[in-house]
Amino acid sequence: MTDDLPKRYTWLELVEMSLTMTEDFVRARHEAENHLAERYHESFEKALEDVEAVFERTEALRSLSSESGQELLISGYLQTLRNMCRPTVSEDDFKNLSDTGTVSASKFSDIGLSQSALGYLERNLNRDIFSWLDADTAPTDSERHAAAVAVAALAAEQKTKTLMRGSSSKRQEQAVREALIARCGLKSVASKSFELLSNGPGKGELFDRETLVAGTKADVALGLYDGRIMCLECKVSNSEVNSFKQLNHEAVDKVKKWAGSFGKQCVSGVVIQGCFKAANLVSAQDDGAYLFCSSNLTPLIDFINGTKSE
């Protein structure tokens, strides 16, 4: 077994890495502006249509707790209704706070569950937007339109941002896998959870999807050619503030967990993309995480290839 390890960067190199990744992020976001605008518009139009449907079937929310409200839940309008709350409520919070334990449309055919759901929603409707509810009068056309636009804009923003985060992360992870197969000769094999090194990926094997390693999810797990394993987290951050949580908390905690479970038999690192504060990169590296940039995977490729026998 070799003691070769990936490159550790100097403070100045990490500062330059941070600047380069931020520049790459800004350039990519500018290039994607038209696409994001189109997706936002599509989401807005759909959300506006859904809000109008809720208004039509509940007398502009004045009869939400009626049979029409239950029909809306069964028809899949819960997300729209959650966006009408003050503040908006997540799926997990709704399950607990409404005492329903579910967001499944089919479950609301149960009258008890639907009444609990509608009772919670009605209590928490955003009366700053739906001001006519306190006056117990029907909204004017302008009030109704303004409220519908406000909710639709909020829903479209949430959906677009979720899409941006999810698609960036998936693209990053897929790009890493493709590079490892093409440039390192790794063989993609079925993923499986493992606690023991002997049950992990063999030499030259790459698990085809994320997996639990010693009880902790790894985005990428592979077998180095010298018998060690390597676990990688893939992190995309759109702000330096967010980067601390993703890198220094989530990823570093996993690196420490894998080091505690496998010692020197496991090499752990993080593939990063986006905006990361240089100080956070320094701290993560000091805590044992090897760092790799999505925009330049050559150091990762060279390390893996370096574990091959001469």
Give a structural overview.
- The chain is α/β, with parallel strands linked by helices and 310 residues long.
- 54% of the residues lie in helices and 12% in strands.
- The strands form three sheets. It has a four-stranded mixed beta sheet with strand order 5-6-7-8. It has a two-stranded parallel ribbon with strand order 1-2. Strands 3-4 form a two-stranded antiparallel ribbon.
- A hairpin with a 5-residue loop joins strand 5 and strand 6.
- Helix 1 crosses helix 10.
- It is elongated.
Give the helices and strands, then pairings.
Layout: H1 11-31, H2 33-57, H3 67-74, H4 78-82, H5 91-97, H6 111-123, H7 132-135, H8 141-184, E1 187-189, E2 205-207, E3 211-213, E4 216-218, E5 220-223, E6 229-237, H9 240-262, E7 266-274, H10 278-286, E8 290-293, H11 298-305
Order of helices and strands: HHHHHHHHEEEEEEHEHEH
Global shape: elongated
Q: How would a crystallographer describe the biggest sheet?
A: 4 strands, mixed
* Unreliable stretches: none
Strand proportion: 5-15%
Question: What is the residue-averaged pLDDT?
Answer: 93
Helix content: 40-55%
